[in-house]
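Researcher: Predict the fold of Protein CANDIDATE G-PROTEIN COUPLED RECEPTOR 2.
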Amino acid sequence: MIDGKMRSVESIVAELPPSSSAGAVVGAGGGGSWLYGWLVECHGLWHNVLMIVPSALFVVYLASQAKRSFSKVSNGRSHVVTALYAILWLVSFFNLAWSSLQAWECAPAKQFVWSVLSLFTTSGMLFLEVSLIAFLLRGNHASGREALTQTFLISTLAVGLDMFLKGIYLFGFGIQLFDVSTNGSQWALWVVHKLLLTGVYGLIFFMYRSRWRERLPARPAFQKYISIMFCLNATALLACALAAHGAGFGLWLYNITVICYHAMYLPLLYVTFLADFFQEDDLHLENVYYSEMKDAGFFDVDWE
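Model: Structure tokens for Protein CANDIDATE G-PROTEIN COUPLED RECEPTOR 2 follow.
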């Protein structure tokens, strides 16, 4: 009799549509399971939090300063700063979206969309990097439309070539460059990529400490920026080389550099190149005068 009742229950359940049986049970916690998958799965909770929170806070900060910043940009005469500020806004939104959608990296159905989003996000950040490198290498008088045109021309060519090569890897050979969970042939490209950046930052880093330092802008903030980027790219180069040989530590170290880059690069860029421009005029001039006096050696005198 019990067996007969069990069979009747099973037959009733089997006849129900999916939405009325198992789907209804899962649906009660569907929102929670989606949130759990978004924050915890793929890379883990702390990885996602460390990516999302700084990116979101920086966009909120830009929005809070937008009115005053837009007024300064509109009344300013620096075409380089104006263009840099506009591109910073665009790249910040891309970076926030990329940081918030980390779960797509582990979803096979989202592989194509994830690759496209990653390509545009990393290319936008690389465009800023190359533009600032070209700006620094132009020397102490890098301003005006001519400087903007030449700087962005160099950046467009460099980033265009980078996107072309990455596109061949992604859509030509099917190599998932932005899926770091596999130790495949993508590491060869990343080693070359980080090697070039490390070499350029290293060159400028040693120029600041040589007799050619007069050819570069003398602001201490620029020197700190170059030092930080040189160390970050050198660490990423080591991580890529280790990961290419199958070392688990290399993969872990590379993930750390990715978090640091996407969470901190845009705020670092803003603090280094744009923050002084958006300060009040008197405070801005005071900082400029102090930097010039410090670079001239006025504060190196021994008064004892």
